[in-house]
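Co-fold these.
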Amino acid sequence: MLNIGVIGYGYWGPNIVRNFNGASGAQVKMVCDVNQQVLNKAKKIFPHIETTTDMEELLRSPDIDAVAIVTPVSTHYKIAQKALKRKKHIFIEKPFTFTSSEAEELIEMAESKDLKIMVDHTFLYTGAVRKIKQLVDENTLGKLLYFDSTRVNLGLFQHDINVLWDLACHDISIMLHIMKEWPSAVIATGTVHFKNDQENVAYLTFYFPSRMIAHINVNWLSPVKIRTTLIAGEKKMLVWNDIDPDEKIKIYDKGVNIESKEGQYKLLVDYRSGDIWVPKLEQTEALKRMAESFVDYVEHGTKIINDGYAGLQVVKLLQAANRSLKNMGETVKI
Amino acid sequence: MLNIGVIGYGYWGPNIVRNFNGASGAQVKMVCDVNQQVLNKAKKIFPHIETTTDMEELLRSPDIDAVAIVTPVSTHYKIAQKALKRKKHIFIEKPFTFTSSEAEELIEMAESKDLKIMVDHTFLYTGAVRKIKQLVDENTLGKLLYFDSTRVNLGLFQHDINVLWDLACHDISIMLHIMKEWPSAVIATGTVHFKNDQENVAYLTFYFPSRMIAHINVNWLSPVKIRTTLIAGEKKMLVWNDIDPDEKIKIYDKGVNIESKEGQYKLLVDYRSGDIWVPKLEQTEALKRMAESFVDYVEHGTKIINDGYAGLQVVKLLQAANRSLKNMGETVKI
Amino acid sequence: MLNIGVIGYGYWGPNIVRNFNGASGAQVKMVCDVNQQVLNKAKKIFPHIETTTDMEELLRSPDIDAVAIVTPVSTHYKIAQKALKRKKHIFIEKPFTFTSSEAEELIEMAESKDLKIMVDHTFLYTGAVRKIKQLVDENTLGKLLYFDSTRVNLGLFQHDINVLWDLACHDISIMLHIMKEWPSAVIATGTVHFKNDQENVAYLTFYFPSRMIAHINVNWLSPVKIRTTLIAGEKKMLVWNDIDPDEKIKIYDKGVNIESKEGQYKLLVDYRSGDIWVPKLEQTEALKRMAESFVDYVEHGTKIINDGYAGLQVVKLLQAANRSLKNMGETVKI
Amino acid sequence: MLNIGVIGYGYWGPNIVRNFNGASGAQVKMVCDVNQQVLNKAKKIFPHIETTTDMEELLRSPDIDAVAIVTPVSTHYKIAQKALKRKKHIFIEKPFTFTSSEAEELIEMAESKDLKIMVDHTFLYTGAVRKIKQLVDENTLGKLLYFDSTRVNLGLFQHDINVLWDLACHDISIMLHIMKEWPSAVIATGTVHFKNDQENVAYLTFYFPSRMIAHINVNWLSPVKIRTTLIAGEKKMLVWNDIDPDEKIKIYDKGVNIESKEGQYKLLVDYRSGDIWVPKLEQTEALKRMAESFVDYVEHGTKIINDGYAGLQVVKLLQAANRSLKNMGETVKI
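Predicted complex below.
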């Protein structure tokens, strides 16, 4: 039984507690937050879990094997460092850290102590992303042409990060997980509407060595929630609408067959427009599956898709995109 | 009765013929196309309309007062010039021309001969755009924050223009019509997937002197048709989903009220999430309304919203965006 | 070339004229309506078509081979009789007649003069119904369990018929076309809300000798347009949403496998919930296809699916349902 | 603090436990189920809650003030009787009982011992039903014309009840809550597809003394989940789509104005088609709100909308509808 201490019981913390509490092979022993009121709420639901406002108490506890860090990004590096020093495995909210050097340092530290790091890129564990990954790996879509994701809603304005670090972080982790290519450059545009110096709208374009292109549209100030990703391949195209409860993924037998005959200026474009197929997806809650993977990873070393290295790659692209964004769309080579 | 000759009976031509034929105050006298087969189709439906494969025959005809030019962009300038020389008013497909100097020359030529030019920016005549324009003019949305438009489908690959000239042209004309600001710079990214050197995917960001930002996502290679525009203001936000037959425009009483108190680092963000309102839109077909405006413009000089000057402004932004696109997202000042 | 005269240029007439005018092998020679204003509209669009307010003029014309009767139901029988007497083939709006004896008389009369009758059950020619018919005929769905159709909107209140004759007429013709079984009884409930004695809401249940059941929900007083039909078979289930422009038909690999073991009171129910498949449908306009079938039927005797006999069967069920409706849900054996 | 014992931890039980556990003023002390495995699951999530397979143990416990009965309908009467004898307040799953006499007996028994009964008609506590109730009470819709509800999905086949008792039960409770009229008759049609003698498809029509009519379509064998209710009034119409996460209720400024002039046979029907309004709904989870109402009801006698009498009325209509269903649509007076 893996004993878990959870630091941070704000917006996301309750989900982490609920899932680690329900995961087979794990139990939550203690929850820490600076706010006593939210701890009282936790206590009402889970009277058997200890609570504390003192992080050191949690980190010192010899009963705790692993620490879930569910706090603002700006605190990740320091808390993770402390937890690793106390020989705790860590499960850490995304994005992993603010800089790639911090992430690298934490990875190194964990490895030297034989501790594990998992970064909370939950989406990778959803039935939808698992199905897309499988379809791409099996070459059902053919050579990929583009990845175009929109993730907007009237979101929580974060105080320590902009919309790119908050939302594009998801799309970048999904893109890297699915694609087999590393981008060569990024251009990010966007704007700050309010006096907090945090961009609340951003548009990212990643160029790839092949003709593949990726685009990400993120926005904290949208009246509607849109979470739609289009992935087009030469053979088939896919739309992932994460809002749709029943038909999240649709695969279109659509595309163009292009031929250019000798001596002809015009292309012969032949449109294919065939059936649509909506595959059934696994229904298990992603957080539950991820929590159980964490247990397996720590206890048996079973390989995971969201370890520290995966988290580091996302941070690298976020840093590059952020530099472009701050310089009004400057091309940043990666 | 305004007698109209239509040049070009390809994809869009039949709609132009049908609407000018049905418009009160106008009648179509002749249709010209290089393809005799499509002329036969026209003849089957409208036996009373003359047809010809010889454009000169149409332009020479003294019975024809105005010419509708429904041909590829690359031919616009030359045909328009000829028509103006023959003293015909012109109705011309969008985009007006390939360069702003061509557009300026045609405008000057028309004015010197007291002839009229209308550019076919049909969307400006839809119930949806008319309603949005009214809401913005009445300040229902408050100070505008962003304009974000997606216009994608498995489209006709054009041979003489890329997706920017083909599709973004619509969004730019709508943006300029609605907004009261002229952009200061544009950044366009995108890619060519096939060997025709025409970009089939493009993403445009327009920066404005105020903190307003506009983004346009156009794509000829999407399995699904999406035509969604989000317009956010400080008071209210609007979503225009042009695919929805019954609820094209929704106005959301949503937003954030932001306060920053003295001595506080954190913003106080207060989310508003109220009712949604779906205004009833005018149902008249946009093309019909536009055809009748053309008649009024020619016969009584009634001011229109899509004259040569409006067409020229669109061409200017398309040229700037195209330069950025060809230079991998270079910032182009406007 | 089949020369057609159209009687009635009200709500539906313009579609009939447009389609017969565009159909290969046919041409519309004359349009008749009692209202001169609507004839002027027809003349504006189709200057080559003759118009008249005198039905006799049309019926007498030796140039006219077939007559399209697009008038209120109450006039069908008399006009059809006159047209047949004048040796015209007839295309007639649905429902064919008010009583089955009228329909039988017209069929007999036509046969004795070697004339053809087609009843305008347009839906049978849509890509959607053609696909459903094919799937049922190929036994893709397995033994049919139920047919459940909802057809509601804020409709035109008819003066001479109730919502059952107006709207359920469509569903009954589709049901009879697809199913291979004749119902044994009908129960219809509904109500009259206004002082015109015409029911504007009606619910029909048809019982079949097998355990199959059919239900039809029709309503002229719905704020939204719904046109959804569920057809369930033992192997697969189908949803036809006629409002959806792109995904009208979805086939669900869903169902239950039921086993009852000896000595057990409880059933063992095993739910299947697999993929969804959205077949591509033919895109041709149904009215165009029907118009061309009419030409073929008249000129070459090519069998059609909506001849007088098909129209008569629909009338029989409408009569039975209407009797039940008027008697507050009395069971009417068929 | 109200101490609650929960009997039944099958499909719905975990939600009841979670909500009473989280409700302020209440705590779950013990959970009982015949299946030890499901009790182990409860124990994993809530280690502080006692579990037992012996219902008597729970009923005997002096620490328990109220019992939540979350078992099949066929057991309701006996368990409720026992609980009342032990002086426990009861919260009981819907439908209350199988017969109105059982319900009446339980109500009388509770009243004589000053105990409270709440029947779990959860929907009455949703933001949607609360808003509809308010709109009807305020006469926003005007005189009601019809209530038409569809509640279908691929549901759990129940062993002791048919689809009418399982699903139509919801619609009937909502209908009675909203409407101010008691129906005069019911006609129910439907069918049994499998050898369990439980109807899995049913259609109910309720006639009312005014011209109001209500229709309910329930089905356990639908490939898609539909939960749509149309409520039309003379002034406005409303659509409640419970599947839509963001726009559950839409109010349409649509309708007809009907005038019949002297000496005229035809009605003058004037269609109104105006704006649509989507009111913001309360977001609290219905079960949570209901759990807290139960606490208030027991502790302070605060009036509730789903007491034993409300449950009894639903049972009366279910019994009448069931008799009609078993007799192939016989009209049953109420």
